[in-house]
Each structure stands twice: as C-alpha cells, then as structure tokens.
Amino acid sequence: MTTAAPPNPTRRRLTTAALVAVGVVVLAVLVWLLTRPDPSEAVAPVVVDEVSAAPPVTGAAAGPSQEQVQALTTLSGVLEHGGDTAEFVLDNVELDFGPDAWVITAPATANFDGDGTTEPLLTELEGLVGQEVVANVRLDEDGDDADVFVLNDRTYRDSAGGTPPWQPPTTDTTGVSADVVRANAIEAVGPGSNVTELERVRAGNVAWEATVVDAQGAEFNVLLSADGTVLDQRRD
Predict the structure, then answer these.
(1) Has residue 122 been placed in a domain?
(2) Rounded to whole angstroms, how far apart are CA atoms 120 and 107?
(3) Which residues contact 143 (CB under 8 A, 6 or more apart)?
(4) What is the pLDDT of residue 100?
(5) 91 located within any domain
(6) Membrane-spanning regions, if any (predicted)?
(7) Which of 60, 77, 87, 148 has the fewest CB atoms within 10 Å, measured from its CB?
(8) Is the pTM here over 0.70, yes or no?
C-alpha cells in the first residue's frame, strides 16, 4: 500500500503569495480604470453652409481675433428700383443700405457704379439700376431682406461689427430747438404748409426728419441737420 506524501508547506506559501500578487495587480488596474481622466477628443471644424464664405470686410487689415463672424452671402443679378426712393432690389431680395435718411443724403463714399466719378450714395445706386451687380450681404431670417457690406467688390460697410457709415461718431449735443426746425421745414415746402410729424434721427448728418403737408394737401419728407439746415426735401 502506497502512502500519500504529506503537503509541502513551501509550495502552499508560494501559491498563496502568487494569488495575492495577482489580486493586487487586478485591483490596481481597476483603480486606474476608474480614476483615469477622460481622453481629449478632437472636435471637427464646423462647416457653414452658405452661398459664399467671404471673410469679414473691414476698412483696414484686421488683426487676430477669436470672435466668429457670420459668413456673407453673395447675390448677383440686375439691380432694380423698389417702390421708395431709397429702396433697391437684387435677385428678389430688398437691399438694406441703412436708414432712408442716410441713403438720401449720404455723401460720396465710393464709385460703386464704375463710371469714374464718385458721387453721392443715392446717385451711385441709381446709376446701377438696370445693370448686373454683385453684392455680399447678410440675409435676415426670412431671406427677403439683406444688409449690404460689399457692392461690386467695393466695401460699403464693415461686416465684423464696426460702426455703420450712417452712425455719427458721437452723440450730437448741439443744435437748435424743435420750433426752429419746424419753421425751416415749412419754409422749405412753401407758404401754407404744416408740420404733421417731427422726429429726431441719427443718420449721418441728418438729425431731424419732418413730415410736411403743403397747402394743396401734398405730403413731403424734409430732412434737416442738427442746426436746422434743410438737407433734402421730396414729395412722398
């Protein structure tokens, strides 16, 4: 009869030590997995789906900026005159050049119609009516009205959020009283006229806008500067 060998104490201790070591390694791995920081994820650039991805248009070279500027849309076609004096339409979109008071009285800014002579803004725009033009614009939510920033490759307005051309650099603190402005508006239209509405505005040199009805009942729009000088008058 064969007698079984007695257990080896040394082998038992080695086996126990090995199991403990494996347990320590497994525990360490679990701790590392639970406590490690989340890996960084690369974010793909966002592609703006616009007709044109024209860069911001400024009067001078722009420096580095972290501010994101909405891309401009390119419109092209024959420029048409709208129903009002300062209203122009391109590709079934009404172009917004700023307040009507500014468009009507704005001085020469650029030779937009390319005739070799830089004329007042309204004259330049009227010179483009019936011609093929290209405009870089920012459309409104409905897509039927657009702020103009570039016209025929000539900068009209800063698209990066700068001061628009019709905005006076400082608030006007001088000028004459409303009574003087009313009197000047009436004189411009003629005897028997009456001011039915008078409004303060800030559109370039225009500080007052008056609605005047003449003796025959015809209505006129009169634009005046801060000192009461009549800058423009025309029948509505």
Answers:
(1) yes
(2) 4
(3) 93
(4) 93
(5) yes
(6) 14-34
(7) 60
(8) no
